[in-house]
Design a protein that fits this description.
3 domains, binds flavin-adenine dinucleotide, globular, alpha/beta, nine-stranded mixed beta sheet, 394 residues, 29% strand
């Protein structure tokens, strides 16, 4: 047998699983189809390490609690990569949620964050509203401030992989997995390497962490496997060449009341995101003109003075959420991660669908718990909660 665990996909989930299994001493390999990590969703997110305040409205309390806990570990273990940032929520006469509802949500959020210093919130005094970087004050009723953390998602992914490699994991880039065969007590996969040759390897378990490609990876398994019904939902971000300070604004789209973040990003301002059902090859996602207009409209509605500056979008990108198929709007669907195994006891293949950047470490632990019956006893007991992450290049 070549490996204990072979992982498909060099996004945050793949590298997180590689870190968890390598830290337990399992012989681990990660295969990524591109020549670098995080080309998929893990460089196209909103880059927030957050509990997800709005998931409280869907009663996803355990998800929010888990994400807040993971945020606290990341603030401790990756201080160069994950920074606590003030978030302002302005509440207008036309806002969907009243000041009372926002206060109630933030109180529950603080409770789920164990009332730690990072979970505190306050109401911003009216006398301080003019310090909010030109925020529109017409019909403004209240402004609340709490904290979330920001990261660089691609750098975080690289840092977690570096940690996995320190514990012995192997990384093979330019390795597109094309075929998986499930055998009696192990699995076999084939990938095409950078020379165009087909290479075969075997592993006790294969973890499919191919993000938006995960369902198509399941489709290339023999014997044929039951798949999960998911939708791919595109989210676009734009970057404008201005600075509004090192703070985040959490606003509602004036058009449909969807939540939008306005965030500092390497000296500029990033705005996102949108939701459009996507039905093409995941490598072909790109921002639509209507998405860019939607984000610009929202931004200028809250920061009207910026409209006179004739700003030109300096960057734009889109990523794909993997959400359970449903009739509901994308932002009302469950964010719980789905784990699909070929069999419950001693699985030979596990696929991850959905998930959060924030909770990648917890997701990796959930994966490990589900595949442990296929693996020998762990030779190491390093807890990934205690592993430091270093900003790549430092
Ligand atoms: C618009 C948007 C905003 C988001 N914002 C946030 C946020 O602010 N905070 C948060 O916590 N979460 C956020 N998320 C969720 C988070 O970004 C994703 O859950 C996470 O990045 C998914 O990571 P992944 O590893 O599953 O997928 P990916 O990052 O897409 O990685 C999958 C990898 O698999 C590789 N791959 C695919 N097929 C093959 C193959 N056959 N062979 C080899 N390699 C293959 C791909 O090249 C890719 O590198 C956001 C998501 C979106 C879409």
């Amino acid at each position: 047998m070549d490996y204990d665990v072979a992982i498909i996909g060099g996004g945050i989930h793949g590298v997180g699983v590689a870190q968890a299994t390598a830290a337990r001493g399992y012989k681990t390999v990660l295969l990524e189809q591109y020549d670098h990590l995080a080309e998929g969703t893990s460089s196209r997110s909103s880059k927030l390490i957050h509990g997800g305040l709005r998931y409280l409205e869907q009663y996803e309390f355990s998800l929010v609690r888990e994400c807040l806990l993971e945020r606290s570990y990341l603030l401790k273990n990756a201080p160069d990569l994950v920074k606590l940032t003030p978030v302002y929520i302005p509440v207008y006469k036309s806002s969907k949620r009243s000041p009372l509802m926002i206060r109630a949500g933030l109180s529950l959020y603080a409770l789920l964050g164990n009332f730690s210093a990072d979970a505190r919130f306050k109401k911003v005094k009216k006398s301080q509203w003019n310090q909010l970087h030109g925020l529109n004050q017409e019909k403004l009723r209240a402004v609340y401030q709490y904290y979330e953390a920001q990261t660089d998602d691609a750098l975080l992914t690289q840092a977690v992989m570096a940690s996995a490699q320190q514990h012995g994991a192997e990384l093979i880039l330019n390795a597109k997995v094309t075929n998986i065969k499930i055998k009696d007590d192990h699995s076999q996969l084939s990938y095409v390497n950078d020379l165009g040759q087909e290479v075969v390897l075997t592993s006790k378990v294969i973890v499919n962490a191919a993000g938006p490609w995960a369902a198509s990876v399941v489709d290339c398994v023999q014997p044929k496997q039951k798949n999960v019904q998911v939708d791919l939902v595109q989210g676009t971000h734009i970057v404008l060449p201005i600075q509004l300070g090192e703070v985040i604004f959490y606003i509602e789209s004036p058009k449909d009341k969807r939540p939008i973040f306005i965030m500092p990003w390497y000296g500029e301002t990033m705005i996102g995101t949108t939701e459009s059902i996507f039905e093409d090859d995941p490598s072909k996602t790109y921002p639509l003109e209507k998405e860019v207009d939607y984000l610009l409209d929202a931004f200028y509605c809250y920061f009207p003075e910026q409209k006179n500056k004739d700003l030109i979008v300096s960057k734009q990108y889109s990523g794909l959420r993997v959400l359970p198929r449903s009739q509901k709007n994308a932002n009302q669907r469950s964010r719980e991660t789905i784990y699909l195994r070929d069999r419950i006891n001693k699985p030979r293949l596990l696929s991850i669908f959905g998930g959060k950047l924030t909770a990648y470490r917890a997701t990796a632990e959930h994966v490990l718990a589900r595949i442990e019956s296929s693996l020998p006893s762990a030779s190491n007991h390093i807890d990934t909660k205690d592993l430091k992450l270093v900003r790549p290049g430092e």
